[in-house]
Amino acid sequence: MLRVVSTLRPLLRSPLLPGPKHIPRPRRLPRPFRAVSSSASLVASPPVAPGVDGITEEHLVRCAAAGRAPLRVAVLLSGGVDSSVALRLLHAAGHSCTAFYLKIWFQEDFRNFWSECPWDDDLKYAQAVCDKIDVPLEVVHLSDEYWNHVVSHIINEYRNGRTPNPDVLCNTRIKFGAFLEAIENLKFDYIASGHYAHVVHPSVQNIERSSELQLSKDKVKDQTYFLSHLSQPQLRRLLFPLGCITKDEVRSLAAEMDLPNQSRKDSQGICFLGKVKFSEFVERHIGEMEGVLLEAETGDYLGTHRGFWFYTIGQRQGLRLPGGPWYVVEKDVKNNVVFVSRNYYSLDKRRRTFRVGSLNWFGDFGPTNNEQFKCKVRHSPEFHDCTIINEQTEENGDVLAVHLSEDDQGLAAGQFAAFYRDATCLGSGIILDSWDEMSFPVCAKALETTRMEDKSKLGKPVRIVNLEHMVKPEPEPVKVA
User: Is the pTM above the cut of 0.70?
Assistant: First the structure.
């Protein structure tokens, strides 16, 4: 049963992050599906007895709230293996499920790349998975919300020299934001998805307590970093059935269940881009503006770039400079200057301290000063040990000064830092940019050059030669008399 719901049009009443400046989106072609009024009743699948799907091992359905069945669960289904197995586990646990496919991108705007973003294949797989267990599938159009609250924010952040995280924004503002609001009146007990994370909800006796976001069993696939900026009201509504099993177990279950998508590869990168290069997306929406590349230590003029928004701190690819490897170490957004260095990973250039704003905590109170935590500054199984100090600033309000136990050369303004106490994710904040002693040192000559109004006076770029890579001439053989 496939229906298309296009009238579920929520407005984000209270976005968790500052709202983006509105960017008019390109004109779209008409939608190819017939819309069904959201006033029509949504018929969920009837609950089944636990174990009827052949899944009898308790640990497989422990994160699917098997002990509380039957619940009415709205399941986000992408057409991939993870969300499909999550749906089957919920169904096996005895819940009454309705699947929802979110159409969150406007493929018509990239019609030249239509074949590269196979959302129609995703939908066919999602429908086939639902048909096997007679679960209804609804298609919800949230492309306008996605443009206004995610894509516009991403574009504005890059214009301001920061590196946003689309996955965090999509979770907070769309999947568990706009969608949750859209179905608020449809009486679902929980929203579920195929994320690798575990939510521990309070018991009936302690209903006033907060729900906790905990690491999944699979520490490599764990996605709590992407979920760390959700609010407590959002978290209380969520189930993640895959939080108690590993990716290998998910693949095995997909084969045992004979899912039609059991062999599909995992999606990589930002889904709405498909195989479109990210630089092409940035160029289309922001454009190009030539600027200069300066060596941070010497101020030498090394060449030109297309615009600072194409580069992020720690980036190596795309600089096209001889004598490298070169790394982006700082950016002057006002003057469109990118500073580079060959010494990014040298021990004297420490990057252990940074500030975090736009703080979000799942509990009532955030961490206390000098408390020991673990944190992630990117999606990765790796943690940093850290200490924090609460600060109050006029520009950013409440912020944390975070000190890592070891260097991290990939800190980028606009990314998220998530904080953990043992296996529990406490929340997260956005890494702030900083032009103080914590940044990569830029020499006085380089800073003076950035303020030149006419940079054509710099002349020809300095060509740096890496002597270590030069081929030394073979020594002439010694003649023996």
Answer: yes
At residue 40, the pLDDT reads: 36
Q: How many angstroms separate the CA atoms of 240 and 126, rounded?
A: 18
Q: Higher confidence at residue 353 or residue 383?
A: 383
Q: How many CA atoms lie within 13 A of 246 on its CB side?
A: 6
443 classed as catalytic = no
Q: Which residue has the tokens 């575990």?
A: 198
For the residues 351-361, what does the mean pLDDT come to?
Answer: 90
User: Would you say 135 and 88 are in contact if contact means Cβ atoms under 8 Å apart?
Assistant: no
Q: CA 446 → CA 197, 315, 454, distances in Å?
A: 46, 19, 15
Both tokens of 209, joined, read 């307590």
Which of 63, 97, 117, 170 is flagged as catalytic? Answer: 170
**Catalytic residue flag (residue 170):** yes
**Cβ partners under 8 Å of residue 390, min gap 6:** 366, 368, 369, 398, 399, 400
Which are the contacts of 470, defined by CB distance < 8 A and separation ≥ 6? none
- What mean pLDDT comes out for the span 379-397? 88
